[in-house]
Hints:
The structure holds 2 protein chains of 2 kinds.
Chain A: H1 3-9, H2 36-43, H3 58-71, E1 75-79, H4 82-91, E2 99-103, H5 108-117, E3 123-127, H6 132-135, E4 143-149, H7 161-170, E5 175-178, H8 183-186, E6 196-199, E7 214-218, H9 242-255, H10 261-271, H11 274-293, H12 311-317, E8 326-330, H13 334-343, E9 348-349, E10 359-361, H14 373-378, E11 385-389, H15 395-410
Parallel strand pairs in A: 2-3, 2-4, 4-5, 5-6, 9-10
Antiparallel strand pairs in A: 1-7, 6-7, 8-11, 10-11
Helix pairs in contact in A: 3-10, 11-15, 13-15
Chain B: E1 7-12, E2 15-20, H1 25-31, E3 40-44, E4 47-49, E5 64-69
Amino acid sequence: xxxxxxxxxxxxxxxxxxxxxxxxxxxxxxxxxxxxxxxxxxxxxxxxxxxxxxxxxxxxxxxxxxxxxxxxxxxxxxxxxxxxxxxxxxxxxxxxxxxxxxxxxxxxxxxxxxxxxxxxxxxxxxxxxxxxxxxxxxxxxxxxxxxxxxxxxxxxxxxxxxxxxxxxxxxxxxxxxxxxxxxxxxxxxxxxxxxxxxxxxxxxxxxxxxxxxxxxxxxxxxxxxxxxxxxxxxxxxxxxxxxxxxxxxxxxxxxxxxxxxxxxxxxxxxxxxxxxxxxxxxxxxxxxxxxxxxxxxxxxxxxxxxxxxxxxxxxxxxxxxxxxxxxxxxxxxxxxxxxxxxxxxxxxxxxxxxxxxxxxxxxxxxxxxxxxxxxxxxxxxxxxxxxxxxxxxxxxxxxxxxxxxxxxxxxx
Amino acid sequence: xxxxxxxxxxxxxxxxxxxxxxxxxxxxxxxxxxxxxxxxxxxxxxxxxxxxxxxxxxxxxxxxxxxxxxxxxxx
Lengths: 412, 75
């Protein structure tokens, strides 16, 4: 079954109550039982059932199962946001004293989180390029995880998932990737060896920019050294299932970052068109990037452009399906960048990505406002960078709008 | 004359049951009509069996099998 068919008819798409074609919204806090014995069995995990929406909900489970099937994982756990998915995913396997090696080409919020984790005794060491050459010198006995985005936001570095996964495993370390910007449409990182995939499903998966959510998918293939990964102490008997079981029954459950049933419903509705939206979005991003690349002095960045160092990797890794929906260009100065943004007529000035609307933002003064200059530069963010998240409008209209805004910024 | 399959006794979710001798974990899951079989976790004598081994892992007389639900959402 291919991608678009699987979205609508995969194993995770079940018959729903009253033969409804999409799940009902279980907008409820708790679930009742006929007997105390039955309720006990559910709490013991010996029976399928729901007890309390913070720890499980039918609509949320429907979303989790769909995304898990798309990613080819063992289990998915939905969270209130992408940031909570990353936070809980990390806290589930790290203790004070542990270290992460991460790409510096990350979303500003993730960089801020890594900064916050320092006070919890978790140190992140950054590499400018996710290559074995740059990672190797940073590995020590404290290193417990390698973390990267599949397509850096907004630096657009593309991760060679297979190479880095294999290398990480050779060192007894798992690989976690944030695949928000790639989505299951372009690639399934688990099939290339990634151990954990996180998404801000607020973005392309939801598609409509209407609900905040996140999700983590565990491949359950990592052979945990329980002496090394002290955070999973007590879960040894579960073997490779230890990570998911600890996350679901301990960290995620206790820290309470559950997903709203309504948001899960909106994700289910949105993800049913993920394939066709990504086709259009990737096509638009590519067309816009090439059109703007004809204009002198914009320094357009997009993986499909001829001079892009990641073009060949992206072409191969994403099976020719596209290069993602994000591109950047440089306006010449912060002042000119603001003029471009202010002159846009319908490209929308907003801070998310992955919407059906085309969005534009000045990352340096917004998403990366708490990052220092070195971190910004490492993430591909300059004072004059504008990030575009391509939507589904007609490409010609988008190009016209962007060109007139760029002309306006250059008028003396 | 047809030979009947040999049987053995195991415990499944706390209940003593007679099953085909050498039944695999996958066969037991199907036989027991386990809910959400794609998400069930299986322990045999408190050892968790990996999903990729369901088809090949054969049960033995006296085994204690638990079906546990962590993966598919829910409690």
